[in-house]
Design goal:
Number of domains: 2
Largest sheet: 6 strands, mixed
Mean pLDDT: 92
CATH class of the largest domain: Alpha Beta
Strand content: 15-25%
Strand order of the largest sheet: 1-2-3-6-8-11
Radius of gyration: 19 Å
Low-confidence stretches: none
Number of helices: 10
Structural class: alpha/beta
CATH architecture of the largest domain: Alpha-Beta Complex
CATH superfamily of the largest domain: 2-enoyl-CoA Hydratase, Chain A, domain 1
Length: about 270
């Protein structure tokens, strides 16, 4: 277990993924990236997984690129040369992802947190976009993602200044949906994820995730029409609608089937 870069713990439909390089504060490497993205892809295809939590081992969530790799990059050394999935790969996963930010969250770690659907943070955890203070632009769609999460002005503040904020301010800005004491973080995220796993239709959550991001590119009328098409499709052809209504009328917990979707995303070359 100690040698695994990403620990996996499946409990009654909730898969907890733990970035597991505590000796390096979970600094990002190509190997960690592949292990994490492989775990996400496997979860998408596993009907037993209904919701996911991602957190970090030890005192950090992910402080960005590992310092050794970062130092090498200043000399022109590439992180890797083989094809890679986009850093925003988590956005393609059709199941809810809750980031439980237990400590330092910066750079690539901040991007991964931004790609989660819901973010909970430990009180006192520190977050920063970091890029501007390293002489870099906002990487990997963060300039697209962050304004949609917290608004243009707040995103400009965090991206241009790359200042460090604590969890309470991140919640005030809307980046975190909940802040709890460190010892309660994983339990709080787990309770939320289990509620999704126990009571919410997996196909409905997948459809809503697609709407939340896809509708940014649609007009209001196109969004309305797309929603009508999805309602017709799911109500006519998927058993979740009937079970959702039947369980509500019968005042019992729903028994929705699991969801298995193979996620295929073309690789990109590492710089």
């Amino acid at each position: 277990m100690a040698d695994e870069l990403v620990l996996r713990d499946l409990d009654r439909g909730v898969l907890t993924l733990t970035l597991n390089r505590p000796d390096r504060n979970n600094g990002w490497t190509l190997e960690l990236e592949e292990a994490y993205f492989d775990a996400l892809a496997a979860a998408a295809a596993d009907a037993d997984v209904r919701a996911l939590i991602v957190t970090g081992a030890g005192k950090s969530f992910c402080p960005g690129l590992d310092m050794q790799a970062l130092s090498a990059a200043t000399d022109g050394t590439r992180l890797g040369i083989r094809p890679r999935r986009p850093m925003t790969f988590a956005l393609s996963i059709p199941k809810p992802i809750i980031a439980a930010i237990n400590g330092a969250c910066a750079g690539i770690g901040f991007i991964q947190a931004s790609c989660a659907d819901i973010r909970f943070g430990a009180r006192g955890a520190k977050l920063t976009t970091a890029f501007a203070r390293r002489g870099l632009p906002a990487e990997n769609s963060l300039a697209w993602l962050l304004p949609r999460l917290i608004g243009h002005a707040h995103a400009a503040d965090l991206l241009l200044s790359a200042r460090t904020i604590e969890a309470d301010e991140a919640a005030t800005l809307g980046f975190l949906q909940r802040v709890v004491d460190p010892g309660e973080l994983v339990a709080t995220a787990s309770a939320y994820a289990h509620d999704l796993a126990d009571n919410v239709s997996p196909i409905a959550m997948a459809a809503i995730k697609a709407q939340l991001w896809g509708d940014w590119e649609r007009t209001q009328e196109a969004s309305r029409r797309y929603a009508l098409e999805r309602v017709a499709e799911l109500s006519d052809n998927h058993p979740d609608f009937k079970e959702g209504v039947r369980s509500f009328v019968e005042r019992r917990p729903p028994e929705f089937p699991g969801l298995s979707i193979v996620v295929e995303v073309a690789g990109e070359m590492a710089r």
